[in-house]
Specification:
single chain; 379 residues; alpha/beta; TIM Barrel; Arc Repressor Mutant, subunit A; 2 domains; three-stranded antiparallel beta sheet; 17 strands; globular
Amino acid sequence: MGRVVELSCYFHIPLCKRKCPYCHFYTVLDRLPFCDLLMEGLFLEWERVASFVLKKRLVSLYFGGGTPYLLGAERLGSLLKRIPRGPGCEITLEANPEEVTKEGVEAFVRSGINRMSLGVQSFDDALLRELGRRHTAKRAKEAIAAAREGGIENLSIDLMYDIPKQTMQSWEESLNMLKDLPFTHLSLYNLTFEPKTGFYKRRRELSPSLPDSEASKEMLERAVEALESYGLKRYEISAFAKAGAKSKHNTGYWTARPFLGLGPSAFSYVDGRRFQNVSNLRRYVEALREGRSACAFEERLPHPKDAHELLALHLRIIEGVDLEAFQRRLGRLHKETLSLLHTFIQEGYLRKKRERLCLTERGLLFYDDLASELVGLSL
């Protein structure tokens, strides 16, 4: 018998109470007609892909958004009942602190959720208002406690830096608040102004109040130091985890595990193909009602461009990439690619650690530039 192929599934739940000014994901207002329409579409799309999924070993399910917590445990549970999975399957639900209650979390746990990710972003109330968030630092801490009391042992939070008007003092205060909170995983992001967002439209106004490059570097270094002192090990550029709490789902993105996206605007990567559903709820459901795919975009990258993109992703992991194993899977790298990697080693961005190639501390700081050069390599 051949090896069973692992697979992850992502469900895009675009419901939101209000669009945050930095968010570039597809969202719709949290209204009952949209909820019902979304559920119809997800059921129809699952019927289309079920036979494919059931031939794989389902490693993780991830409900992202938007704010999937708004879907409610009953609706989400009715979907999960249709998806057979093994006992080790990681099932993550994203939520915003202002919605989370102990009773609500208990209902989601009964439906099958075993991991949550809370969009905390900051423990500074002034910065939370700047970000357009509807919770306070106090409410964020209450939500973390409610999630754990509701039965979630594997709890992740998001934290953001490079926020307009953010100071080193406020960052230190946020980091200090983390010390005694009962979370097991943290994703650390620097704010970026993505096209078609409120912040992007205001970028000229906001740019003077952003931390400069030196302050940004200091914030990142201080965060790494603080988190590791709290027992969270950095295992990927933006991810920190306590023992046994690494994100199975996100690790799949970085190591090219196939994943299937369901829901409007959801991305997929299967058999070397990348494709995306239409970013419109009504058109998404209409296509599925008519028995058509909801896919709006598809591409298959030629070699070696596919290998360059996947190698850049794999290098995000702190333990690095086994180049020989990588090439056995995706084909031999061209000499120009190997030459560029050698240059990165000579310049102190990469290092060889036995059979693995890893980012150095310097490489971690300049990863975006390295990845851009690697992906942009023309052969």
